Amino acid sequence: MRVGVLASGHGSNLEALLASVHGREVRIVCVASDREDARALIVAAEAGIPTQSFPKVAYPDRVARDVALADWLTEHGVELVVTAGYMAILAPEFIARFPGAIVNVHPSLLPAFPGIRAIEQALAAGTPQTGVTVHLVDEGVDTGPVLLQEAVEIPAGADAESLRVLLQEIEHRLLPEAVRMLARATAEQG
Ligand code: GRF
What we know:
Layout: E1 2-6, H1 12-20, E2 27-33, H2 39-46, E3 51-53, H3 62-75, E4 80-83, H4 92-95, E5 102-106, H5 118-125, E6 129-136, E7 146-153, H6 160-189
Parallel strand pairs: 1-2, 1-4, 2-3, 4-5
Antiparallel strand pairs: 5-6, 6-7
Helix pairs in contact: 1-6
The chain binds 5-O-phosphono-beta-D-ribofuranosylamine.
Residues 7, 9-13, 40, 84-85, 105-107, 168, 171 line the site of 5-O-phosphono-beta-D-ribofuranosylamine.
């Protein structure tokens, strides 16, 4: 299965995918970002994977940007889109191009704490547990069908940074597991 990854930042989830499912169940064929300076693009380039940035300023509006992004992914034969720390909301015009084939990782137990600053939201709410969700992307913000979830107790005295580290360890297992699951399901469908 040919996978395109969208990432805005550090790219640790991309690294986890490269180290686990890439070259096995799936092939990561391209990596795109909304940010030209995303470390994820360097990670991809070092792995020999084609990259492209789609900065907001280069397009008249969000739809134009996301259509260009969808076209680029299609040119690379992408069958599954993985948003791994992609911080822009995808336009419905983009989502319609990859029906049921966009996967996102989110650092909370959805439907709790959707959107940005999910870790800070969980801490502010004083909830005893939080976790990681991998879900299919629909037109809402972090609202699509859940594929996998894993919960974790919030340690006493945790701050956003320490909790982020804890959650990322889970993300780095859960996202590859979901991608593996989808690749196998698609292979079985023939
Ligand atoms: C992840 O923790 C993800 O949940 C959040 O952004 C982070 C991206 O990290 N939305 P990375 O770029 O994969 O290192």
